[in-house]
Amino acid sequence: METKPTAITNEIPEIKFTKLFINGEFVDSVSGKTFETIDPRTGEVITRVAEGDKEDVDLAVKAAREAFDHGKWPRMSGYERGRIMMKFADLIEENVEEIAILDTINAGKILAHGKMLDIPFAAKNLRYYAGAADKIHGKTLKLSQEMQGYTLLEPIGVVGHIIPWNFPSAMFFHKCAPALAAGCTMIVKPAEQTPLSALYYAHLSKLAGIPDGVLNIVNGFGPTTGAAICSHMDIDKVSFTGSTEVGRVVMQAAATSNLKVVSLELGGKSPLIIFDDADLEKAVDLALLGVLYNKARFNKLGEICVAGSRVYVQEGIYDAFVTKAAEKAKAWVVGDPFHPSTQQGPQVDKKQFNKILSYIDQGIREGATLLTGGKQVGEKGFYIEPTIFTDVKEDMRIVKDEIFGPVMALMKFKTVEEAIQKANNTRYGLAAGIITNDLNLANTVSRSIRAGVIWINCYFAFDFDCPFGGYKMSGFGKDLGMEALEKYLQTKSVVTPIYNSPWL
């Protein structure tokens, strides 16, 4: 494995926003408490941010409820909302450099990736739903009696968004963009590890003209801030992305409070199936992309829920695949995310770093063969070598559990039926990949795997118009596409009598 020296040469901007954002203003928490936010490159403190709790959530919900029940945002035309969202997107594009640096120092994201992909993706996501805001239509109903009926699509109300740390910017707008287009108001709890870009987006939303109370940011921790959102009696919906274990807690809180609507995008242990007819070079590159790159050429390793961490290779090319995969993994450049040659930055924090290393140790203890990697890189920061295991069995924890790190479990199969059975042998169902030149085979396997998205001869092929969400214990409800907009709308039927009409 190749490493580069730490090269922290970029000028770090002043951290301008560290408080809560409630009702259009940056404010201290009610308790006055703050917590440290850490730079995963070094393990050192960046700054302290306000720590929200139940009282702060109450204030944010009060502001959001007032903005929804009596404010102008839900009552604007979709065209007007769309214009403001377009302005919001303009402001993001004008500040790409600063926002990308915030995600680099706060989440360990590769700077080049943030500037080229993550932050532009956020702006484009806003534009997609801005364009949809004036195209929210109900239906005219053909009733069976002397009645006329139609449906209205109305915003669901006050929404609580709980977002993860692996894609701070992209996930912020996966949730906020369709909710804004629908006319909802909202409270966002960014991950406690990565609050900085969310607070910056709050600032930009104010400049764009989003009315006070529509978008509120409450920093804090899951057991306090997150729990207050999930159990709040005046929140109408919660949208959560995170672990399956916490997803259960979210649903329980929603059920025992006001039965609020819940959508969940949870864990994954996605299979990548590589058949004998695949081009070996392409197959290896896609497999490494699936668990190491995370997207395109730059990103943090493995910290994505759809990582193709279970790789099944047909026996005819298995040995050649193992050799080539090890060779390329060892050449990976691990280092500071500001360095232009870096392919892999640090894991997000010490807790996640230790979790990944403990899974690697578990794999070794259970008898898997460590083909490459498995150790910390350097003595400072949360860097881990790209890791590949062979001689892996289906009942091992490195195969069953979501590790959320740069760890690939590499396995062999003989028949198509065996590959399908192994791919479905998981409690998750978020994504899957298939690599083959046989169209009939691709069609058969893609229809046989129980997962929310199937990528054929590609991986991480996300698009604004392509719905994304899981099966089984990977959750329910879609992000992206028009289906995401539907999550933030509810249908109202209106029926009136008709008299002496020549037809129904």
CATH fold name of the largest domain, please? Aldehyde Dehydrogenase, Chain A, domain 1
The CATH homologous superfamily of the largest domain is named Aldehyde Dehydrogenase, Chain A, domain 1
CATH architecture of the largest domain: 3-Layer(aba) Sandwich
Beta-strand percentage range: 15-25%
Number of helices: 15
Write a compact overview of the structure shown.
By secondary structure, the protein is α/β, with parallel strands linked by helices.
Walkthrough of the structure:
This protein has 504 residues and is an alpha/beta fold. It folds into two domains: 20-266 and 474-491, 3-Layer(aba) Sandwich (Aldehyde Dehydrogenase, Chain A, domain 1); 271-456, Aldehyde Dehydrogenase, Chain A, domain 2 (3-Layer(aba) Sandwich). The chain contains 15 helices and 22 strands. The strands form six sheets. Strands 16-17-18-14-13-19-20 form a seven-stranded mixed beta sheet, with helices on both faces. Strand 19, helix 14 and strand 20 (453-456) form a beta-alpha-beta unit. The chain is globular and about 75 Å long. The chain starts with a strand and ends in a 7-residue tail after the last strand.
